[in-house]
Amino acid sequence: MEHKLWGGRFTESTNPSLEKLNRSIDLDKRMFEEDIEGSKAYAKALNGIGLLTSTEVQAIHNGLEIVAKEWREGLFEIHQGDEDIHTANERRLKELIGSPATKLHVGRSRNDQVVTDMKLWLKSNLKRLDLHLRELISVIVSRASHEIEVMMPGYTHLQRAQPIRWSHYLLSHAWNLKNDSDRLEEILKHIDIMPLGSGALAGNPFNIDRVQLANSLNFEEITQNSMQAVSDRDFIAEFLFWASMLGIHLSRLAEDLIIYSSKEFEFITVDDSYSTGSSLMPQKRNPDSLELIRSIGGSLFGQCCSFMMVLKSLPSTYNKDLQSDKEAVFITFDKLTSILEVTSGTVKTLKVNQGRCKSALSFEMLATDVAYYLVRKGVPFRDAHCLAGQVVAEAEKKGVNICDLTLEELKEISSHFGVDIGKVWNYENSIEQYQAVGGTAKSSVLSQIRQLEAWFCKRNF
C-alpha cells in the first residue's frame, strides 16, 4: 500500500474509484506557489518555537525553491499517491532534503493549510481580475468622453422612451461596473484574515506566533476561532456571488449591444475581430463575442448556486464537501477573466453609427416634454400628463407627428399652449433640460466622467 500522510491506521488500500474521486491535485496544483509560500512561512514559525533549527529551515527553504522551480517549468512529476498540492509538495520536498521535510507539518493540518492557500491565491488573483474590470470601465469612460454629442433613444420596456446621450447610456454600465469593483475591495478585506495555525479544528498546540506568521504572509488579521477558521468558506461564497453579479452586468451590456447591432436598430457595428459569420449565409455578421458573454454570465451564477448548496447542510468544521470550492473558484475565475477581456475588446472596437442613432429619435418621445412645458405654465403635473396624452391621441387620430399639430389644435386641448411650444420640438433641448445630478445633459455627463476618472486615481491596489 502506497504511503499516505494519513495512512498509519489503515490496513487496506483505498478503493480506486474513491481514490480518483478524492484526488484534487489536478485542480489545486494551481496553488503551488501559495502552498510553498505558506510552508516557508510556517517553517520560520516552527523555528521561532524551537521545533526546527535554522539549518533545517534553510534546507526546507532551499528544497521548496527547487519544488517551485519544477512547477514553474513544467517539470514536476505528479505521483499516483499525490492526493492534493499539499501532499505532492511535501512528498517532493522529502525526496529532495530528507528528514527535515517530515517535521514541517507538525501542528499543521491540511484543513488550515488549504484555506490559507485559497486565501493567498484569491488575494493575488482577484487583484488581476480587478485590473481587467477597471480596464473595461476605462474603455467605456473614454468612449463616453469622445462621443458625448451622439444622441439616441433611451428605452424602457424596450420601447422608445426619451432622448438621451449615447455617453449617458454607456456610463450607466460604467457605474454598475464601478460598484462591482468597490464590492471586490470589500471582499478582499474579508479574505485578508489568516487561518493558518488553526490545526485540524482545535488550534495549534505549540503556541506559534500567529500574528508574526500573518505578517510574514502579508495578512492583515488572524482568525480568532480555530473551528470557524477551517470551515469558513464565506469568502468563497462572497466571491462567487460577486462574480455572478458582475456576470449579470456584463450580460445586460452584451444584450443591449446585440440588439443595437441588429439590422432593425443598426446603432452600432461590432468589429470583424469580435464577430463571426455563417457557414450558410454569406451576408451574416454574428455578434458571437457578445452572445458568449451573455451565456457565460448565466453560467457564473450556476457555480455560485451549486456551491451555496454545498455549504447549506454541512456540520461544523472541515468536511470533504468543501473540496468543491476550488473547482467553483477556478472555473469562475477563468470564465470571468475571459469575458472581461472580450467585453473590453468588443466595446473598444465597435463603431457607433451616429446618424442611425439620431434618425431613430421620434417626436412622440417628446410627449413628456409637452407635459413639462405645461407644468412650467403652472399646470399641475397630473393634469399636464393627461393633457399631453390628449395631444398624442389627437396626433394619432390625424395621422401626424405631435409637432405637426397646429397651435389652434393644441389650444383646443389647453389654453396654456402658446407660440413657444415650438421650442419643445428639439431633441437637444430635451436632453439638455436634464441638468440635475445624474441626468443626461452634457454638463451632467461630463460630471460623471470626471467622477469616474477621479475614482480611478484613488484606487491603490
TrEMBL record:
Query: What superkingdom does the record give?
Result: Eukaryota
GO terms for biological process, alphabetical: L-arginine biosynthetic process via ornithine
Question: Which GO MF terms are attached to this record?
Answer: argininosuccinate lyase activity
Q: Extract the InterPro entries matched here.
A: Arg_succ_lyase_C, Argininosuccinate_lyase, Fumarase/histidase_N, Fumarate_lyase_CS, Fumarate_lyase_fam, Fumarate_lyase_N, L-Aspartase-like
Q: Provide GO CC annotations from the record.
A: cytosol
Q: Which Gene3D superfamilies match?
A: Fumarase/aspartase (C-terminal domain), Fumarase/aspartase (Central domain), Fumarase/aspartase (N-terminal domain)
Return the CDD domains for the record.
Answer: Argininosuccinate_lyase (cd01359)
Fumarate lyase N-terminal domain sequence ranges: 8-302
Q: Where is the Argininosuccinate lyase C-terminal domain?
A: 365-432
The record ties this protein, via Pfam families, to: ASL_C2 (PF14698), Lyase_1 (PF00206)
Q: Which family does it belong to?
A: Belongs to the lyase 1 family. Argininosuccinate lyase subfamily.
Return the protein name: Argininosuccinate lyase
Q: What does the organism's lineage look like at the top?
A: Eukaryota, Metazoa, Ecdysozoa, Arthropoda, Hexapoda
